[in-house]
Amino acid sequence: MKLATWNVNSLAVRLPQLLDWLTANPVDVIALQETKLPDEKFPQAEIEAAGYQVQWFGQKTYNGVALLSKRPASDVVRNIPGFDDAQKRVIAGTLALADGTTLRVIGAYFPNGQAPGSEKFDYKMQWLRALREWLRDELAAHPRLVLMGDYNIAPDDRDVHDPVAWAGQILCTDEERAHFQALGGLGLHDAFRLFEQPPKCWSWWDYRMLAFRKNQGLRIDHILVSDALKADVSACVIDKLPRKNERPSDHAPVIATLALD
């Protein structure tokens, strides 16, 4: 089974690129972020024609998430239960596996936070706390669980092209990294770091300053797997190829391969 996450940065703009990518990379599940479409504008027919069941949760201009899967998702949840949030950032579903077990998949678009000390940073901290509390219950109910999406957190200095310049900046603050580490405390593991990886592996590059051409990016898109799935992960890679498209998303897909059916 292959699972992927991709911040498409506007599905209205990037739908043809998504469909082309799925043709070349027929993953079993993909979580999308920043679809930036109200629910009534979501391209359900086009995605179903590509062979995917789809659940979505969106809003005009900002945010928006979707979960595409080869098999139907049940027990679908939109946003963090009990956390009052007008922003559409989370979608979760349960997939039945061939062995009679289930896989809980959560796709999330973590808040950016703007800048330390800002109201948006405070919101990010509140959101992260609420997410962790909910995940504790989700993991108890669903031992096989994957949390994937755009985390807007670079967990470590090796996930930043210039750690000195980014020190203390948004996406790289001690507070954000502590929240990422706290997810590990729940029993979630960064699939990418389960394997030896080449240096300077990023999933996001700014549109400005020739960042992609210079490979000056951050690794902020992640797939985390629960304890029960850790041994099943056989690979995790970042596909930089879509970032070379004309009018690309500023993010690249991340794909994990698991020994599941």
Can you offer a commentary on this structure?
By secondary structure, the protein is α+β, with helices and mostly antiparallel strands. The chain has a single domain, classed as Endonuclease/exonuclease/phosphatase (Deoxyribonuclease I, Chain A). It is built from six helices and 14 strands. It has a six-stranded mixed beta sheet with strand order 3-4-2-1-14-13.
Nearest-integer average pLDDT: 98
CATH class: Alpha Beta
CATH A-level architecture: 4-Layer Sandwich
- The termini sit apart by 6 Å
The succession of helices and strands, N to C, reads EHEHEEEEEHEHHEEEEHEE
- Order of the strands making up the biggest sheet: 3-4-2-1-14-13
The tally of structural domains comes to 1
Which superfamily, in CATH terms, is the homologous superfamily? Endonuclease/exonuclease/phosphatase
Radius of gyration: 17 Å
So what's the overall shape? globular
Output the CATH topology: Deoxyribonuclease I, Chain A
